[in-house]
Write a structure and sequence with these properties.
Structural class: alpha+beta
Helix content: 25-40%
C-alpha cells in the first residue's frame, strides 16, 4: 500500500493506542475502547474521522492474537487520490456501518 503503513501484532489482552489515522484488523478480533465496538478481520476504524479532518482517539484491545495495519491520515488521503477502487471499497464499508447503526436506532425506537 504505502511505505507509511505500519503492520503489527498484538497478543491476547494487548492494546494499541489510537491517536489519528486508520486501523485495519487483518486477522483476529478485539474491541475499540471506550466505544465498545467489536472489530474483526477486514474491519476498518478511523477512516471517516480521517477524511473529515477529525481524529479518532481511544485504544484497540485484542481478544486473541491480532494482526493489524495502521496508516497515518495524510498517507490515507494521498493513497485514496490515486486508487479509486479503494475509495469504492471504503464507501461500501462505511455505508454498511451506517446501515447497521440505523437498524439499531430503529430497533431501539420500536
Amino acid at each position: 500500500l504505502s511505505p507509511d503503513v505500519r503492520e503489527g501484532t498484538l497478543a491476547p489482552g494487548g492494546t494499541l493506542a489510537l491517536d489519528g489515522g486508520v486501523l485495519l484488523v487483518i486477522e483476529g478480533t478485539g474491541q475499540l475502547l471506550p466505544q465498545g465496538l467489536a472489530l474483526g478481520p477486514g474491519d476498518v476504524v478511523g477512516a471517516l474521522e480521517s477524511l473529515a479532518g477529525e481524529t479518532l482517539t481511544g485504544r484497540f484491545e485484542a481478544s486473541g492474537d491480532v494482526l493489524y495495519a495502521h496508516m497515518p491520515t495524510a498517507s490515507l488521503r494521498a493513497h485514496l487520490e490515486n486508487h479509486p477502487a479503494l475509495v469504492r471499497g471504503l464507501l461500501r464499508r462505511l455505508g454498511g456501518r451506517l446501515r447497521h447503526i440505523n437498524r439499531k436506532i430503529s430497533g431501539a425506537r420500536a
